[in-house]
Design brief:
Shape: flat
Structural class: mainly alpha
Largest sheet: none
Distance between the termini: 15 Å
Number of domains: 1
Number of helices: 7
């Protein structure tokens, strides 16, 4: 029995925390890399200019880390709550975009965040009440 199988609640939380960190790094890095990529042009000089920005590498590392974290989570966690919890990325990136980049959060975004969070809670509750099928 693996360490993850021995303590599923804590291990799921740790796995989702790692996933959220990698997702947030990827999304924020991608946003900053895109901003630094302007003005867009089709030239070798533009590619070298883009490759000089560390945000490009932050996006690559973030996406790769998120992929491996997600594959590991899927190996051990129930798919319904895992898929729902993976959408916490949207909430976290929204908060980070507001606090780090000064982006506006409107009522629609707040309602969307509330719906995502309530969906995760509902799926988590239903998963905890469903019988275990071996």
């Amino acid at each position: 029995m693996s360490a993850i199988a021995g303590r599923p609640g804590r291990s799921y939380m740790l796995g989702f925390l790692v996933l959220m960190v990698f997702d947030a790094v990827a999304q924020i890095s991608f946003k900053l890399a895109g901003t630094n990529a302007l003005p867009l042009e089709l030239s070798v000089a533009w590619i070298f200019r883009l490759a000089a920005h560390p945000w490009v590498y932050g996006a690559i590392v973030g996406y790769l880390g998120a992929f491996f974290a997600w594959m590991t989570i899927l190996k051990y966690a129930p798919i319904g709550p895992a898929f729902a919890a993976s959408h916490l990325e949207i909430v976290i990136v929204l908060i980070l975009s507001h606090s780090l980049l000064g982006e506006h959060i409107g009522a629609v975004q707040l309602v969307g965040c509330a719906l995502i969070l309530s969906g995760i809670v509902c799926l988590g509750i239903s998963e905890s009440r469903s019988p275990v099928i071996a």
